[in-house]
Design goal:
The complex is a heterodimer. Chain A is an all-alpha fold. Helix content of chain A is 78%, strand content 0%. Chain B is an all-alpha fold. Chain B has a domain of 208 residues: Orthogonal Bundle (MetI-like fold), CATH 1.10.3720. The two termini of chain B are 13 Å apart. The chains are: A mainly alpha, B mainly alpha.
Chain lengths: 283, 341
């Protein structure tokens, strides 16, 4: 596995370390929110719209709820859903793309034309239509993002599988009597996972942005759920109290940035042209 | 049709028609497969209780017919330039689009202009100063640009520059006490300039600047990254080394040798990025209260206004095809080796 041997060098990159630390911190916050949060995220306390200060470090919102606690609990909503979303689009898109690449002909053509159609539509607008049609809820927002997210994986996987299909070790596997499925599972897929995982890491940020964007528009999480996009939207109504929208937005930014730092370094490490440069720098 | 350019254009038009068909079909199927009902989305609670009004609404918008008939009726109108009636605004969709599209073209056009200038400049700096501090700073900044939630950045920009510092105008397209310039193109900046109303022009540009910058954040980041790697790749080429060995000044090498060659991948990415810009307008227009196609799409999507959603999809699809066409033509202009085929 050449890919794995390149990983330690990637880890020596300061950006990757920063991204890894921040991502890990958010995972810990999400897991331990009930222990870490200073207040109940739904408890209403006076005064309302209190500015950040001791007691409420990030201030309170228009219902007097502690924003810091809501952001911590919000991590339990946004992060697992985003990860689930990326895993699902990777599985669906990857499987469809692998079939399109391996079996070709009309199956492949059909799948890829469908992917092209989704690509031609602006993502937010298509996701908006799906979310609105399904009815505003967080689950439906996830489904809506899934509809627009899978084609990227299908396209990349298909390209990689196409290149792998004609390789000699795959052909010899077929000559040894592997069925198409076994050949795909044993010989082809393990060799294309690296680049697809990089895509998935970079996609975590995109998926979170889209999901929170839908919630911001009122097509995702419903109150009183402490979803970050919905929290930013609630800040629009109380413009004077800048902290209501600012901190949840920063939460989104830091999570997306952390995964983009990681993905960007991983991509450089897996790209043979830049891998050498990284190696030289790391030594 | 022997002429290569004619064949090229013909094929592009065929693709555009197919794309348009696909977009209408996807919207149509999606909005009809799912549980949402345009009748409940559009009529008030009282009207819903009256079967006569519901039936009238259904008949008015052709919702009482079978799905294939509805779709074919729509296509029939489409070839005659009729995009149907919006169920929400009770106006022809074409009129709605004509009103809202120019504002978005102004916004997205401004954003892509800003992104191209800033993104290419930053990318070139990063490539020329590779691995130095400025390269690292630009790398972090471009990743921040890609990662920042557009809707949040819009809010922050509005709060800081309008509300606190009061250096930018507020929401809308021009100052509220001004009249829109005489409509020629619908683009307020261009119309005001054409009419010589320079105060209106200044106001329109002022109102455009912040939202366009916010919208451009993502594409600036994207273009910086791509320009950097494209320039780095060209810098390693033999002909650049030869130009250096010849003793040509750095400026000439950069603009005539490096940038020209690096522009092909940059323009490809810029063309693709235009799609994400159009997506971003939904969020930016809602914060800055600019009446554009993003806002219109949002209103139509939430009320399941089918003809309006398809109209938006078609406009965006056309823009997509048009941008790709421009990109392809630019390839030939920039790089004489490229032939349209």
């Amino acid at each position: 596995m050449r890919i794995l041997s390149r990983l330690p060098e990637a880890w020596r990159q300061p950006l990757a370390i920063a991204g890894g630390v921040v991502a890990l911190a958010w995972l810990v916050i999400a897991a331990a929110a009930p222990l870490l949060a200073p207040h109940d995220p739904l408890a209403q306390d006076l005064p309302r719209l209190a500015a950040p200060g001791p007691g409420h470090w990030f201030g309170t919102d228009q219902l007097g709820r502690d924003i810091l606690s809501r952001i911590m609990y919000g991590a339990r909503v946004s992060i697992p859903l985003t990860l689930l979303l990326v895993v699902l689009s990777l599985l669906i898109g990857g499987l469809l793309g692998a079939c399109a690449g391996y079996f070709g002909r009309w199956v492949g053509e059909g799948i890829m034309r469908l992917a092209d159609l989704v690509f031609a539509f602006p993502t937010v607008i298509l996701a908006m239509v799906v979310a609105a049609a399904l009815g505003a809820s967080l689950t439906n927002a996830v489904l809506a993002v899934l509809v627009v997210a899978w084609p990227a994986y299908a396209r990349v996987t298909r390209g990689l599988v196409l290149g792998m299909r004609e390789r000699e070790f795959v052909l010899s596997g077929r000559l040894l009597g592997f069925s198409a499925w076994k050949s795909l599972r044993v010989d082809v897929l393990p060799n294309v996972t690296g680049p697809i995982l990089v895509l998935a890491t970079l996609d975590i940020g995109t998926a979170l942005l889209l999901l929170s964007g839908l919630s911001f528009l009122g097509l995702g999480a419903k109150p009183p759920s402490p979803e970050w996009g919905a929290m930013v939207a609630s800040g629009v109504e109380v413009f004077d109290s800048w902290w209501v929208a600012t901190f949840p937005g920063l939460a989104i930014l830091t999570v997306v940035l952390a995964f983009n730092f990681l993905g960007d370094t991983l991509r450089d490490a897996l790209d043979p042209r830049t891998a050498r440069a990284i190696k030289e720098r790391a030594l | 049709m022997r002429h290569p350019l004619a064949r090229f254009l013909l094929r592009r038009i065929a693709v555009a028609v197919l794309l348009g068909l696909g977009i209408t079909l996807v919207t149509f199927v999606l909005t009809n497969l799912v549980p949402g009902d345009p009748v409940t989305a559009n009529l008030g609670q009282r009207a819903l209780g009256d079967p006569a009004i519901v039936a009238q609404f259904r008949a008015e918008h052709g919702l009482d017919k079978s799905l294939p008939v509805q779709y074919l009726t729509y296509l029939g109108g489409l070839v005659q330039g009729d995009l149907g009636m919006s169920q929400q605004s009770h106006r022809p969709v074409l009129d709605d689009l004509a009103e809202f599209v120019p504002s978005t073209i102004e916004l997205a056009g401004g954003a892509i202009l800003i992104s191209l200038v800033a993104g290419v400049a930053f990318g070139v700096i990063a490539a020329l100063r590779r691995d130095r501090l400025s390269d690292q700073v630009l790398r972090v900044l471009s990743l921040v640009g890609i990662s920042v939630p557009t809707f949040w950045l819009a809010l922050v920009a509005f709060y800081v520059f309008f509300f606190r510092l009061q250096i930018t105008p507020g929401s809308g397209r021009i100052a509220p006490d001004m009249n829109a310039p005489p409509g020629v193109t619908g683009l307020y900046t261009l119309d005001a300039a054409l009419a010589g109303q320079w105060d209106v022009f200044a106001s329109a540009v002022g109102h455009l600047l912040t939202p366009a910058l916010v919208l451009a954040a993502y594409t600036i980041g994207l273009l910086t990254r791509f320009t950097r790697s494209a320039v780095l790749e060209v810098l390693g080429q033999d002909y650049v080394r030869a130009a250096r060995a010849k003793g040509l000044p750095g400026r000439v090498i950069l603009f005539r040798y490096v940038l020209r060659s690096a522009l092909v991948p940059i323009i490809t990415v810029a063309g693709l990025a235009f799609g994400s810009l159009l997506s971003g307008t939904v969020l930016v227009e809602s914060v800055f209260a600019r009446p554009g196609i993003g806002q219109y799409a949002y209103k139509s999507a939430t009320t399941l206004d089918l003809p309006a959603v398809m109209g938006v999809g078609l406009v965006v699809g056309c823009v997509y095809v048009l941008i790709n066409l421009v990109v392809d033509i630019l390839y030939g202009v920039i790089d004489p080796r490229v032939r349209l085929a």
